[in-house]
Amino acid sequence: MGEFMSTDQSSGTAIGAAVLAFLCGMRYLSEAGAFVMQLAVFEPEPRYFVGVAWNGLLVATLFLGGVLLLMRKFLGRTLVVVGAALALAASVLANGDIRPYFFAEVDGEPLITSDFATFLLFGMAVAALVLSVVRSTSDWLEGRRGPEEEPSKQDRLPGW
Questions:
Q1: pLDDT for 78-95, tens place per residue?
Q2: Which residue windows are transmembrane per the record (predicted)?
Q3: Is the pTM of this model over 0.85?
Q4: What are the two backbone dihedrals, phi and then psi, of residue 45, each rounded to the nearest 5 degrees?
Q5: How far apart are the first and last CA of the chain?
Q6: CA-based nearest residue to 73, from 134, 141, 10, 139
Q7: Contacts of 99 (CB under 8 A, 6+ apart)
Q8: Structural domains in the chain (count)
Q9: Which range marks the domain in which residue 87 is found?
Q10: Is position 3 within any domain?
Q11: Which residue positions in the chain have pLDDT lower than 50?
């Protein structure tokens, strides 16, 4: 069974972090879209502007971070960490009267009403944060290989 498994396991954490960053970014894109719709339909309120700006920042950070992480850029890792940390901070700290500034509400109810879905989205942000800071992601970004791995054809020096 071991002969069929890839020896380069480190790329999985970086790719997983990028995919989770995209999924988290989609969640905040829906929040930003809801705030934009509320701005278009209702009387402009400060919470709508704050919501568009906050969620737009998270979308840009997570999407750009995911793309740059897949391109093996360290800035991508930093952006995913910052975006996931900000998303987690908002999820934990935005309660009470400030919640409508960060999460869109329709008729006084949040867009996501299921506790399971909320927990799943929180877990995705935690997983994106953890996967982006683990050592194997760093090794993959730096292009390190294990001692038993051969370099790819384009990475081989002449005379290999």
A1: 999 999 999 999 989 988
A2: 48-71, 78-96, 116-134
A3: no
A4: -125, 155
A5: 29
A6: 141
A7: 105, 110
A8: 1
A9: 11-142
A10: no
A11: 1-9, 160
